[in-house]
Amino acid sequence: MDPDSPDDPAEFQKRLDALAPLIVDGAPYAVSLGFKIAEITRDRAVMTTPYSEDLVGDPETGTLHGGVITALLDHCCGIAAFGGLGARHTPATLDLRIDYMRPAKPGCDITAEAHCLKSHGLVAFVRATAHDGDPDDPVAIAQAAFMISGASKAAHKRAYEAFKDAKS
Amino acid sequence: MSQALLDTLLATPFVSRIGVRIEQKGTELTGVLPFTDKLVGNPLIPALHGGAVGAFMEVVASASLLVSQPMARLPRPIDVAIDYLRPARAQDVYARAIVARSGRRVANVRVEAWQGRTEAPVATLHGHFLITPQGADEES
């Protein structure tokens, strides 16, 4: 958890792979909704959430609540932004725009794929789609901007200091 | 006003799971998202998950549409645009919605969410919802 991120792509990927489990397990809300990370590279993230009757938003049709898709897209975009911004600080969502193209099919797991299109300094721009089996027939698409906030930097510093103290 | 559907909305598995409550004074409605550890997105700050605050505002938007006129079914989101203005701290969140326009099929809603002070919102949502007013064409 050193403050600098490696320039070498293989080292960078190693770091992402090491951090990947923490990125979901470290967020209680993501854990409680059952999110799983499927893939993470420097500027791409893939995440899934299993269908669950606990997450239904319309009892008449059995479709998942829009809020589940919102959270999945937010989290997946955030992971792509995290990689894109150098895998040091957890970025905060600045804005998130979602188009709900169609209701998700009852009983189907949802997969979100996010790409970090551009990142510089403290800001990253991300696009994502969510689908329930066929990536060419998305249930929702999203566009988001993320930023490394002062609160996130301060939290990282506290965690790093605590980690160093624990080691020494 | 669609009290039965409002009750249905609050009892749906996802909404009852995140624990949204609605306080109603006539047609004025305030949503409450009581803090629990399960809503946290970043424990280091600690801050609530953006997806939790976003979902909460979607629920408050739907609830406001249900009290604005009699509906035949629950509103369905078409699109939402969420702005996150401050980290949402480990506390309860409140939200109020303004129905900018509620037509025969589509409604335009704005929601503001805050914690300590209403003048310092943590997030805002602007969205379009597909609605089915009672008595209007109900097949879609």
Describe the structure.
Chain A is an alpha+beta fold. Chain A has a single domain (9-167), classed as Hotdog Thioesterase (Thiol Ester Dehydrase, Chain A), CATH 3.10.129.10. Helices cover 35% and strands 32% of the residues of chain A. Chain A has helices at 9-25, 28-32, 66-84, 150-167; strands at 36-41, 44-49, 56-58, 63-64, 92-100, 110-120, 123-131, 140-147. In chain A, the strands form 2 sheets. In chain A, strands 1-2-6-7-8-5 form a 6-stranded antiparallel beta sheet. A two-stranded antiparallel sheet of chain A has the order 3-4. In chain A, a hairpin with a 2-residue loop joins strand 1 (36-41) and strand 2. Chain A is globular, with a radius of gyration of 17 Å. The mean pLDDT of chain A is 91. Chain B has 140 residues and is α+β, with helices and mostly antiparallel strands. Chain B has one domain (3-130): Hotdog Thioesterase (Thiol Ester Dehydrase, Chain A). Chain B is 24% helix and 39% strand. Chain B has helices at 3-11, 13-18, 50-68, and strands spanning 21-25, 28-33, 40-42, 47-48, 76-84, 93-102, 106-114, 121-130. In chain B, the strands form 2 sheets. Chain B has a 6-stranded antiparallel beta sheet, with helices on one face. A two-stranded antiparallel ribbon of chain B has the order 3-4. In chain B, helix 1 packs antiparallel against helix 3 (50-68). Chain B is globular, with a radius of gyration of 15 Å. The relative contact order of chain B is 0.20. The model of chain B has no long low-confidence stretch (mean pLDDT 93). At the A-B interface, helix 2, strand 3, helix 3, strand 5 and helix 4 of A face helix 2, strand 3, strand 4, helix 3 and strand 5 of B.
